[in-house]
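User: I'm putting together notes for a lab meeting next week and I want to include a structural view of one of the chains we've been expressing. I don't have a solved structure, so I'd like a prediction I can at least talk through. The sequence is below, exactly as it appears in our construct file.
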Amino acid sequence: FDGSKLYKHYGENVHDWMGAALANDEVWIAEDRNGEAVGFMWMQIESVYANMPYLALLGVKEGFRGKGIGDQLIDIFLGISKQMGFDKAFIAVSDFNPRAKPLYQRKGFKPLLLVPDLLKKGIGEWLLMKEL
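Assistant: Thanks for the context. Below is the predicted structure for the 132-residue chain, given as structure tokens.
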């Protein structure tokens, strides 16, 4: 996430979030053929959203974006959520990331609300939900 829009806006918080994800064993990593990490997903199975799955963090390394890696990670998140018997899944996306929201909507997520200043003043977070 270094150098990403997320890091630009949230700084060291991103590293803290990744540390929490790793500590809770809630991380999925996409690797290339050489074993290099090219994608990161933090998936909370029992989240703050009524104990339903929440995709807390998703990122693809620069140079690997646009190759379907994020799309595949979302499919894994949705597949696991459904397989575990959940009927809904959630994701939040920052308003400064205009490419992400349409991606999630193509995957069937519907915007529920925009929460202004949720994590940082001046940044809104869209909460989206998908029925599984």
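A couple of points you could mention at the meeting. The mean pLDDT is 93. The CA atoms of residues 60 and 66 lie 9 Å apart.

User: Perfect, that's what I needed.
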